[in-house]
Amino acid sequence: xxxxxxxxxxxxxxxxxxxxxxxxxxxxxxxxxxxxxxxxxxxxxxxxxxxxxxxxxxxxxxxxxxxxxxxxxxxxxxxxxxxxxxxxxxxxxxxxxxxxxxxxxxxxxxxxxxxxxxxxxxxxxxxxxxxxxxxxxxxxxxxxxxxxxxxxxxxxxxxxxxxxxxxxxxxxxxxxxxxxxxxxxxxxxxxxxxxxxxxxxxxxxxxxxxxxxxxxxxxxxxxxxxxxxxxxxxxxxxxxxxxxxxxxxxxxxxxxxxxxxxxxxxxxxx
Length: 270
Fold this sequence. Notes:
Blueprint: E1 11-12, E2 18-20, E3 35-36, H1 48-53, E4 60-61, E5 64-69, H2 87-97, E6 103-107, H3 118-134, E7 145-147, E8 171-172, E9 181-199, E10 207-216, E11 219-226, E12 233-252, E13 257-264
Parallel strand pairs: 1-2, 2-5, 5-6
Antiparallel strand pairs: 3-4, 7-9, 8-13, 9-12, 9-13, 10-11, 10-12
């Protein structure tokens, strides 16, 4: 495999490249580290809790893969044509997999013709439309100012890197500052209900927990919090309208290296 298809990712409980998330619901743990103590795992002896959560610290980099079928099972059955996951359900699974730092592997079984059933195809197309609509416009990019402590070394580590759209840059602080804050200032109130964060993964997962606040009624109010970030962390909130947003690093193993803070508006009903 390594010789003939060197870029392929091999999958099992223990990798060697990606790990099973420990369920077939398509959901990663609310806390999901990309690292795992791989040698603790062997075929037929799955520890579902640890596979869902990962290990911190862990000996190997083994991101979780969330597998699930668009139907109740892996294969097509005509009796299940009215049990296909809806676009809303698929969007929810996206937030519980990709939005927790894992990958999302969706099974699409062909029908007796060897084609994807029209219901499956229609729901999948609507799912794609919904995801593209949610993330079409990052409101964080409209911030007129981003403030916070900065690591020496120039603009590459400035708080503005949180919203520059460049995955190669990131906000970082001095080694001694492991619980800093960054504040986004907007010229007028913005409205959003989705928060997103990414870490600069070449430096690993550094943040253990964080919170996001909005300025409302003359004070900061917490609107979301989480633990692991990794490749992506998405948080859905009720509608928020505010002229200022604050990111707080609550606990970290080292100074943060955050490449993105995003804000989007889904306009869904909750």
